[in-house]
Each structure stands twice: as structure tokens, then as C-alpha cells.
Predict the structure.
Amino acid sequence: MSDLRTRFGAVLAIALLPILIFSFFMVFSYGSPSYIIVSIFAWAFAYMAIWIATDRLVFLPLRKIKKASDQFASGNLKARVGDLENAPDRISELGAAFDRMADNIVEREERLVDNLREKETMLREIHHRVKNNLQIITSLLNMQERKLKDPYSLELLRQTRGRINAIALVHRGLYEGHDLGVINMRVFLSRLLSELKTGLGVDPNKVQVKMDIEKLYFEPDTAIPTALFIVEALTNSIKHGLQVEAHILIELKNVNGRVKLSIVDDGPGVEKGTKQKTGKKLMKGFARQLSGVFSAENTAEGYRVSLSFDRPKNTRSLTQDAR
């Protein structure tokens, strides 16, 4: 603060305030000797100028960068900072760095999507070819069946064909589904039941099969032994336990982290001491493959075959549908 005398003899109070951060000065003059009032106005205007300049040159570009980053994080991959007009060099460099990073992320994600799509195409083709090869094997068995006359041999051949069809249906469900890694057990078991009834020559007027299947998704390693277990249980019920008219109930549920499968028919059941047949041996083998527990018993409802095993980590329930 100093006095300045003009050529006309007037005395002015001069206030010179440097705004070093932006490399300019603010000069205030007032004809009154009241230095305090001049100083107050000088500081007030100076801070207002600093605030406006800081908001325009610093805060506004930073808000623009934050807005772009928030949009990008929320899924808008087209969000960019763009040109930061009049912003300091460091802030402009920050905005440009964000744009480069976003471009690299989008490019890398596009490559990953392309690779995943190619992988899915290959997996679908593999499952499709496996299913076709299994169908060829089934066709060869059908040709062989025409040459057989022995009822026992024919029965064994049909059971083998049913097992092969069950595996083929798993691969069909995989390449036709939305998720190549898992199979919808409710849809799959409906198809399997239809195939089995046709293959075993079940009369729908005499044998009624009902299902109570929770919406679960299994990987092939779990779905195949589960399907084969059901094939053996149903084959035993239809061919060995049922005489005239009968009802069969298939249940598959997730109970407290364990998968519980049961097949109940109202046939006469199995007498104690009966020699263990191939179907029961196979069911025990499938239970071991799943690290599960197998049981077969006569109950008030009929003959019950059960299998329980720990739910696989990737098993999804009704509230967690596949993609």
C-alpha cells in the first residue's frame, strides 16, 4: 500500500496485490486516504478473482475428468474426457492419460470377447460332434438288435442303448444351452424321461412318471453320473418292479447344501437276500463317482432309491439362473 500523487495534485491510495499462482497482479486505487477500506476491497476482489480463476482453470477440468471416470466405471465404455480447454498442462495430461487408458481397456475387452466367442463356438462344435458320434453308436446297436433273437440279449442291448442316449442328451443340452459350462437339469431330465419311456416301450396308460425337479444347473461331470443313476433306477422300476399299473415319482432338490435325488415306485419292492443285480451295482458306482451316499429300501410309499451328495460349488439354484 502506498500513496501516488497525480500531475493534478490529487493523492491516490494504491494497493498492488500479486496473484503469483496465475502470474498476474491486481492493482487497486482509491482517492480516499482511508487505507483500511481500500485494503478490504482489494483483498475481497483479489480472493474473488482467485476463486473464479481456480474454479475455471482447475476445478472445472477436474469435475469433467471425474464425470467421465464415473460414467466409465458404471459401464459406459464410450465415456471420455476430451479436450480440456484452458486447463493447466498437468491437468490436461491427466485427462489425456485417462482417455488413453479407457481406449486400451475397451480394445482389450473387445479382444477378450472375440476370443470367448471363438471358444464357445469350438466347444459347441465339440459337444455336437460327441453327440453325433454317440448317435452313430446307438444306430449300430439298433442294427445289431435286429439280428438278435434271445430276449435276454435284447434286454441288455436296450439297456446299453439307454445309457448311451443319456450321455448323448447331456452333450446335446450343453451345445443347445446358453451356458456351455452347465446344464439345466429340469429341462434335461424331461428330455431324458421322454427318451427312456420310448426306448423301454412304456405304456403311458399303465405307467405314470411324475417329476419334482428343482431348477438346478450341473456341470457335465455331475450331470452325466446323475443321469446314468436315473436311467438305472427307472429301468429297474419299469422292468423289474412294476407289473400292471404303477406310478413313479422322481425328485431332485437342493436341501441345505446337499443335492438329494430319489426315485420312488409303488411296485412290490425287493425282498431281503435278493442277489444284487447289475443295475444296483452301477448305481452304487455312480454314487461313488459323485462322492455321494446311495440307499435302496422298501417304504410305505413303495420302493425308494435315493442318492445324496454335496452340492458342487458351481451348482446354481432357481434364484441364480444361468446366463
